[in-house]
Design goal:
93% of the residues lie in helices and 0% in strands. It is mainly alpha-helical. It has a domain of 39 residues. The protein is flat and about 45 Å long. It starts with a helix and ends with a helix. The relative contact order is 0.06.
Length: 60
């Protein structure tokens, strides 16, 4: 049930953004790309800190 509501919200949100025009669509795409980049940076940091565990924490 929640998945259906979420999916319909996503479809409605996509239609709304599409109607806002190309400029807004580009801004949304840039925001999504930057969010993905930030997520990957955090993921990379967490992976590297798991490999070196305590030395990274103690050096700070």
């Amino acid at each position: 049930m929640r998945v259906k509501i979420w999916l319909s919200w996503c479809i409605a949100e996509g239609r709304r953004k599409k109607e806002e025009g190309r400029r807004k669509k580009e801004e949304g795409r840039k925001a999504m790309v930057s969010a993905i980049k930030n997520f990957l940076i955090v993921l990379t940091i967490s992976i590297s800190s798991n490999k070196a565990e305590i030395p990274i924490i103690s050096s700070n």
